[in-house]
Structures are given as C-alpha cells and as structure tokens.
Amino acid sequence: MLKEKKNVTKIKSHYIHQYEIQQERLRRKKKRLKTRLILLAMIVFLIIGSMTTYHFSQRDLRQAKVEQYDQLQNELKTLKKQENSLKEEIQLLNDEEYLLDLARTNYFFSKKGEIIFTHDEDDPSN
C-alpha cells in the first residue's frame, strides 16, 4: 500500500531541540566516518594494487636474471673446457718430441734418410 503522509506537528521544547541537535551531530559523525572509511579503503586498494604491480614486475625481472645467470653458467663451463684444452695444448707444444711429430705430419719434414709418400683420400683410384 501507499505510505500515508502523517501530518504531525512537532513539539517545540528545549528537550526536543537538544535531541534534534544531538541526532544531527550523530548523522554528521556517521557521514564523516563513512567518508573516512571509504577514503581509507581506496588508499588500501591503491597500495595493494601498486604492491601487486611491483611484485609482478620484480618477479619478471628475477626470471630474466635467472635465465641470464643460467646462460652465463653454461658459457662459463664452455670457456673452462676450452681453457683446459688450451692448457693441454700448451703443455704438448712445450714437448719437443710432439713438436717434431707435428712438423713431420703437417709440414712434411722428415728425418735423415726418411721418404714421405702422400696420397689423396678423396681419389679412390689410388
């Protein structure tokens, strides 16, 4: 049903006046509290949003650094293997017999009275 409009006159007394002032103060206080709570909630959501964004960007950055670290570790292993092989080669090059053998095979140097024959591995008729 429709609400009926009540036509009741207010009593004008000091007590009623004080009561209305008190009710108005409570209404304003509730409104300010509600406004403060909404403002606080917005600030909290803003902070949580920025922290979440920061977290995801840091997580992506960390992932990129981990991948770069793994790549550099693999490169380091490769370089260490290469270093070891080069050290072995240096040791072999310091050996006089190895140098003579290397010169004989690569540059066809021969000992006194030795004859060197060469053949092509590509030509099957030889």
TrEMBL record:
Lineage, uppermost ranks: Bacteria, Bacillati, Bacillota, Bacilli, Bacillales
PANTHER family membership: CELL DIVISION PROTEIN DIVIC
Residues forming coiled coils: 62-96
One Pfam family this sequence matches: DivIC
UniProt source species: Cerasibacillus quisquiliarum
Membrane-spanning intervals of the chain: 37-56
Any one of the GO BP annotations: cell division
Protein name: Cell division protein DIVIC
Organism domain of life: Bacteria
Keywords: Cell cycle, Cell division, Coiled coil, Membrane, Transmembrane, Transmembrane helix
